[in-house]
Specification:
alpha/beta; Calcium-transporting ATPase, cytoplasmic transduction domain A; Calcium-transporting ATPase, transmembrane domain; Rossmann fold; 4 domains; 9-stranded mixed β-sheet; 8-stranded mixed β-sheet; 31 helices; 27 strands; about 50% helix; binds adenosine-5'-triphosphate
């Protein structure tokens, strides 16, 4: 146990702030971000928009000035909409980056604080541990067995050891990582003055990962562009052949192309991924890589750590094994008791401040270790005496592969070794046992007796830690741990998290396998897994030892049935991920320690812990759990499914609407009808229906049975499960119905302006009905609760108001060449725009009943 130091190094907040003003932030400056003006101008970076503007200006010069101005205004309004979307996305992604910014533990005003590494300044003293990334250049002041990975700077992948006593071996550099040990580090240079700063430009060339979905949509977009252009050209040429005005036809063709080419498709994917990411953050999952959101929805296995993720990580010692029995500590005031206390408390890294009376506030450190100190806390004086009279001279820190920890303490001029760790590991190293104050040989019989007690304690869900010691033949290496004297075992309970059971159930309903991976004993793991319903029989567990005896093929075969992996080391995790992946699973895997990083990288979704995770694991992960909670993983998977569904929704909407628009014009020209819409009207439809309603679909809440379906296949394309057919059928019907309304108008002898107004209203209204249909692939409009998506209600209302405005405000009527529609004309509009949605909904309603 370590007592808090009386003289704490470091700066005061005031001094740090002063220095920060002088020296600037501890940041590597990257290339400049695009300014808002650049983002706005980039909205015009579209070939068809330039052709449209060119054609408009020409037609303006040739006399149609009002039309030309209107078109230009529409183009600008569209650009503003695009800008707002893109700017918001940039902002929210930027905010996420800041949240994911590295932090460090620094001494300020005499206490240890966690701050954003950017606020670190020269003279600060930070605490660095295995797994931390060094936040600035500086020197190690204190610490033992420190090993740093400097491959980022040197390319050498071997760890470099640091020695605080030798000047030339004290330096540490920003961006390199602590592999082993713990130390105090003082900052000497920051930001662009660091070695890393000097090579910062190289880092700028690292590409951001593109979402595969976005890439696929971009290439689809290119095909659609060509297709649209061909159709628009045909419409234009047929019109010209038929003797229509050439400029008018050209403008019409270009307007149609601008309206129908789904240029926003790929962009909306980014918007909806970004919005989804901020929703996930509200549920405590911080997504570090945008494409991960897509994969999340396909997750078929969640491999989760036990301690802290499925359990509360609040440990309390419940049972102690000493002198051959489970005992009550009060009655064991023997040497055995004091030796157990010494081994568990001195071989312990938690900090304790004896001046603070409230033990929970006074004690800081790993819950496994604090629980042990608490156990002996009743004997404060004895505890104090041990801690104050002994000094740690050497240690081999705990690591999750060895599962034990050892220290050499100097007490009254004599050196003594204390060991604590997983009971089987400790007992392997013991040759003697302390019983009723006597050291006896640890015979085979005795070993069996101890083992059976440990088995029994573990089956009661207790996490067991054994204590051992020796005071002779001390070598400063792992040999130190040979020939130890076994003392006893403390068993702690770590209750499951209340919400974990429900989350496990949700996983199962959603066709996802929840799997527990733990360093703990098989029985402990099994007891907790059963209580959480992760598994129900004893065949579903294997241990690290079992894994070692299996080949990769054997593991691959067996892994599907396994729900609990116990007593595993981090390198087993990598094999587990690979085995699941070879069976075509999409694997999410959690981890916190440095050694977990390779497995996290290998997993389809690597998840690191926000609270207990190390920097290296966080950087390797695609998602950080801010609350270390298993239930959060399940929520994130759900959110991943929702986002994917929503992307399908707006793709369905946008493409069928655009198809409807193109077909209306195309069919009219094939049937040698007059143009059913003017260029301005086409652009208006695009403005009123494409933008806001599509974005609103992107934030649609989850379908109620989204977590009752099997995960989708990762290889499944976005258009799978009948989406193409839906788009083609529905798009064609929108086109046909719109054209029919035009023909009905002509049949009743209405003039061309009225017929076009009728067509315009029908086209807009069909799309606004259709947007509600797109909210669910399985349910009819009647079953979807309208007010669960107020954005959509708002967007649709806004589009209707815009339509009403251009129909009924005289000034706008002039500009858009419309006439006010009468009630009976509205009947035609509503009939042709609503009929398909109505029939389709009745069909779906009957089908799902
Ligand atoms: P997970 O977090 O993956 O569920 P875990 O945290 O329980 O697993 P480890 O921390 O590797 O796994 O612990 C494995 C075993 O090592 C424990 O069962 C316990 O016996 C022992 N152990 C844990 N912490 C310490 C420690 N600080 N000192 C000594 N032994 C420890």
């Amino acid at each position: 146990m370590i007592q808090e130091k009386t003289i704490v190094p470091g700066l005061t907040t005031r001094e740090a702030e002063k220095r920060m003003k002088n020296f600037g932030l501890n940041e590597i400056q990257h290339k400049k971000k695009a300014s808002p003006i650049m983002i706005f101008l980039s909205q015009f970076n579209d070939f068809m928009v330039w052709v449209l503007l060119g054609a408009t200006i020409i037609s303006g010069i040739m006399g149609d000035t009002a039309d030309a101005i209107t078109i230009i205004i529409i183009v600008i309004v569209n650009a503003i909409l695009g800008f707002v979307q893109e700017f918001r996305t940039e902002k929210s992604l930027e905010a996420l980056k800041n949240l994911a910014a590295p932090t460090c533990k620094v001494f300020r005003d005499g206490g240890l604080k966690v701050i954003n590494s950017a606020y670190l300044t020269i003279g600060d003293v930070v605490v660095l541990e295995a797994g931390d990334r060094i936040p600035a250049d500086g020197e190690f002041l204190e610490g033992s067995s420190i090993m740093v990975d400097e491959s980022l700077l040197t390319g050498e992948s071997v760890g470099v050891s640091k020695d605080t006593n030798k000047k030339e071996k004290r330096s540490g550099y920003m961006g390199t990582t602590m592999l082993k040990g713990k130390g105090l580090f003082t900052v000497t240079s920051i930001g662009m003055d660091t070695e890393m700063g000097k090579i910062a430009n190289l880092l700028d060339n690292i590409k951001e990962e593109k979402s595969p979905l976005k890439e696929r949509l971009e290439s689809l977009g290119k095909i659609l562009v060509v297709l649209c252009l061909v159709i628009c050209a045909v419409v234009t040429i047929l019109g010209i052949i038929r003797g229509n005005d050439i400029t008018e036809m050209f403008l019409l063709g270009v307007s149609l192309a601008v309206a129908a080419i789904p240029e926003g498709l790929a962009a909306i994917v980014t918007v909806s991924l970004a919005l989804g990411v901020s929703r996930m953050l509200k549920r405590n999952a911080l997504v570090r890589k945008l494409p991960a959101v897509e994969t999340l929805g396909c997750t078929s296995v969640i491999c989760s750590d036990k301690t802290g993720t499925l359990t509360q990580n609040k440990m309390t010692v419940k049972e102690v094994y000493l002198n051959g029995k489970i005992c009550e500590l009060d009655k064991e005031k023997l040497t055995d008791y004091t030796m157990l206390m010494k081994s568990l408390v001195l071989c312990n890294d938690c900090n304790y401040d004896f001046n603070v009376k409230n033990i929970d506030k006074a004690l800081h450190g790993d819950p496994t270790e604090t629980a042990l100190v608490k156990l002996f806390f009743k004997d404060t004086n004895l505890l104090k005496a041990f801690v104050e009279k002994s000094e740690r001279v050497y240690d081999i820190p705990f690591d999750s592969t060895r599962k034990m920890m050892s220290v050499i303490m100097r007490e009254n001029g004599k050196e003594c070794c204390y060991v604590k760790g997983a009971p089987e590991r400790v007992i392997e190293k013991c040759s003697y046992i302390l019983e009723n104050n006597k050291i006896k040989p640890l015979t085979y019989q005795k070993k069996k007796q101890v083992a059976s007690f440990i088995e029994a304690m573990s089956s009661r869900a207790l996490r067991c830690i054994a204590g051992a010691y020796k005071d002779e033949n001390l070598t400063r290496s792992e040999k130190l741990e040979d020939g130890l004297i076994f003392i006893g075992v403390a068993g702690s309970i770590d209750p499951p998290r209340a919400e974990a059971r429900d989350a496990v159930l949700r996983c199962k309903l959603a066709g996802i396998k929840p799997v527990m991976i733990t360093g703990d004993h098989k029985n402990t793991a099994l007891a907790i897994a059963k209580s959480l319903n992760i598994c129900n029989n004893d065949d579903q567990v294997v241990t690290g030892e079992d894994i070692e005896s299996m080949t990769d093929d054997e593991l691959k075969k067996k892994v599907e049935k396994i729900r609990v992996f116990a007593r595993v080391s981090p390198d087993h995790k990598l094999r587990i991920v690979r085995a699941f992946k070879r069976n075509n699973n999409v694997v999410a895997m959690t981890g916190d320690g440095v050694n977990d990083a390779p497995a996290i990288k290998e997993a389809d979704i690597g998840i690191s812990m926000g609270i207990s995770g190390t920097d290296v694991t966080k950087e390797a992960s695609s998602m950080i759990l801010m609350d270390d909670n298993f239930a959060t993983i399940v929520s994130a998977v759900e959110e991943g499914r929702v986002i994917y569904d929503n992307i399908r929704k707006f793709i369905r909407y946008l493409l069928s609407c655009n198809l409807g628009e193109v077909l209306t014009m195309f069919l009219a020209s094939l049937l040698t009808l007059p143009n059913p819409l003017s260029p301005i009207q086409i652009l208006f439809v695009n403005l009123a229906t494409d933008g806001l309603p599509a974005i609103a679909l992107g934030v649609d809440p989850a379908d109620k049975d989204i977590m009752r379906q099997a995960p989708r296949d990762r290889k499944e394309g976005i258009f799978a499960r009948g989406l193409t057919e839906k788009i083609l059928v529905r798009g064609s019907l929108i086109g046909i119905c719109t054209l029919l309304s035009f023909m009905v108008g002509r049949y009743y002898g209405m003039n061309l302006e009225t017929c076009r107004t009728l067509t315009l209203a029908t086209l807009v209204m069909s799309q606004l009905f259709h947007v509600f249909e797109c909210r669910s692939e399985r349910h009819s409009i009647f079953e979807i609760k309208l007010f669960t998506n107020l954005y959509l209600v708002g967007a649709v209302s806004f589009s209707i108001i815009m339509l009403a405005a251009i129909l009924y405000i005289p000034f706008l009527q002039g500009i858009f060449h419309t006439v006010p529609l009468m009630i009976n004309q509205w009947m035609i509009v509503l009939f042709f725009s609503g009929i398909i949605a109505f029939i389709n909904s009745i069909y779906l309603f009957i089908k799902t009943k």
